[in-house]
Amino acid sequence: MKRIDLSVIIPVKNEEALLEKSVLQFWNYFSKQDKIRNFEIILCENASEDHTLILCRKICRKLLNVSYIHADKFGTALKNGILKAVFPYVYSNGLDNPFKYEDLEQMLSLCAKFDLIYASKTHPQSVYRINIFRKTATLMHSYLTKIFFKLPFSDTQGTIFMERKKILPLLPLCNSSGIFFQTQLALRGMYNRLRITSVPVHYTGLTRRSKFNIIVEGIKYIVEVLKEKYKIIHLSR
After folding, report:
1. Strand partners of residue 89
2. For residue 34, what are the domain limits?
3. Backbone Cα Rg of the chain
């Protein structure tokens, strides 16, 4: 495989305790990767209530190829991160790096064959052990996605790898500002006949508390699923 140029986008919210250390770990990892020629890291800060935004500015002054954007919602931050990216391939990951680059290794091996690749905790080959409350939330998201939209895979809430030029035309069609944005991107890709797949991961527990309120975000996700389904039905008439 030829070496690629990669934009790494990382949504961050209320991350002042871990931000500097974690970004440095990302920077060191990508600096040493044989499969990656050039890289940039874009911190997508969204509505932090601590000093995360201030730290983003500080980190960008210290580390080469690191920049940041500010947005008010997770989905908006992710979308703006893709728009800001300058390299042909884009990889979205969480600051806690939940899959420890196992996902990325698979994605890099598949990027010549697929336009959009998701890391899926519900993939048949995935190992997913976590507390029952979090696992139920993931399965609920997956069930709703599969039943309502018939995507070729059900978990859209993991990391994402994409070919930027194929994704850019889809962004004006993705209007969700919340976590549904990742599902909406997959849907728009499917309807536009992009080559989409998912890869399995090992995920055996949280290393820290989630930044998302599962109940609140779950309700928002259900509402957006219903709105999207209504839109699809209306357009098909």
Report:
1. 6, 163
2. 4-131+155-209
3. 17
Contact in structure between 224 and 148 (CB atoms under 8 Å)? no
Ranges of H-type helices in 68-155? 74-84, 102-110, 132-149
Separation between Cα atoms, residue 200 and residue 191, nearest integer Å: 23
In a domain, 188, yes or no: yes
Mean pLDDT by 10 residues, the chain (237 residues): 92 96 97 96 96 97 96 96 98 95 97 96 86 68 78 86 98 93 94 96 68 67 80 61
Instruction: Using DSSP bridges, classify how beta strands 4-12 and 36-46 pair: parallel, antiparallel or unpaired.
Output: parallel
Taking the C-alpha atoms of residue 102 and residue 132, their distance in angstroms, rounded to an integer, is 23
Name the burial class of residue 1, with classes exposed (0-12), middle (13-18) and buried (19+) by CB atoms within 10 angstroms of its CB.
exposed
Q: Give the pTM.
A: 0.89
Assess if residue 9 is contained within a domain: yes
Task: Please report, for the domain that includes residue 38, its CATH number.
Answer: 3.90.550.10
Query: Does some domain include residue 219?
Result: no
Q: 9 — phi, psi (to 5°)?
A: -110, 135
